[in-house]
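Input record (one chain):
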Amino acid sequence: MRANSLALRLFLSATAWAVVILVITGIVLSTLYRHGVERAFDRRLGVYLRTLVADVAAPEEASEKFPQSLGEPLFELPLSGWYWQVSRLDPGKRDVRSSRSLWDGGLPHLQDLGVPAGANGSREGYVSGPEEQRLRLLERNIDLGEEGHFLVAVAGDAAEITEEVRSFDQALVITFSILAAVLLLTTMFQVRFGLAPLKRITGSLAAIRAGTAERLEGKFPDEIAPLARETNALIDANKEIVERARTHVGNLAHALKTPLSVMVNEAAARPDDPLAVKVREQAGIMRDQVAHHLERARIAARLTVVGSVTDVAPVVTALARTMEKIHRDKKIAIDVHADEQARFRGERPDLEEMIGNLVDNACKWAAARIAIEVVCERPDPASERQIVRIIVDDDGRGLSPSEREQVAKRGRRLDETKPGSGLGLSIVVELASLYGGGLTLGAAPSGGLRAELVLPAG
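The corresponding structure, as predicted from the sequence alone:
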């Protein structure tokens, strides 16, 4: 998942919502469990409270109304955290009886702390007891008429509640952590599974651009199927437009070829006529210009075709053998070192024309040897874009920097004794620029000229 990918956005959004839901659910469950533990604890205290109330209300002597034990040994153990206390609230007759565990201390009154009474007349809450213990206290007012007004209270150590809730929270954290990990894995699988058709479309488009496929094939989900259909329609329309452009270019070339030929032939029939000489000269220029611009139009039309890819090594090897035969009288040896994986994103005739012109020019100027090297490389490590670099070195006299600038211009020839029209390198420059590449001239290690052609890789 890359930083700016749709998969990462979906994963992070799903993960954020899952974490928020799990945290809220955990807090709610922990709170509900705490309330449940408190209610269970209060019911336990309520049993002791009702026992005390019954003893207080029993028709016995006052000295025997307050039991020293409720059947729980903790009420006998000093500062055990479990206490009971009965306070008489009548003016002038105030008296406090308590469990032995309370020792010489006392319990605070919830009614004095402003805690309201519940539906059954009882009050419950947390208080601080002896030794700063945190206690859960339950108390109730009892009015026995002439026998007096009493406040009966029972308290238990709140550490039991805290420990119970802490154990539950630990188990809840472990359970939710495992659940979160499972949810993250499930979310990752769902994102990958849901975006798999988009990845398949990406692979299909790459195959079309690489020339191994012509259309998006296969069945896609309903949400993506319109995209595939429109893409295929766009490819078909593009091919139709290119084919129509090629037809128009061919028709134009045929329409201009005949009139120019007639003009040249008529002028050739009058060799001594100055006007005929001028017509032949200008007709030749027109023919070159028409051929030049028609070739550019033809190449530009081909460049719009998606999926044209050519293996470079076979083309270079074949051209090297051909040029050795053409220039056999000079006995030139051509060494080829080509990367078999190098592929040019374009059509084979254009690649043959560019490399053919470079090798032919090198053969004209070389003394005995030409070296051709083809490498495929990535100029920017951070980018996936690759280029094909074709280097042609000869061992001729080489060119000065000013001469290198001239030979790339259309029709420029430094040596009129060499065959050719002076259009070779200019054609290479124009073709390379149309493909987004370029031609660079420099000095070869052997002392001659180095022509370095850079083209997009397929």
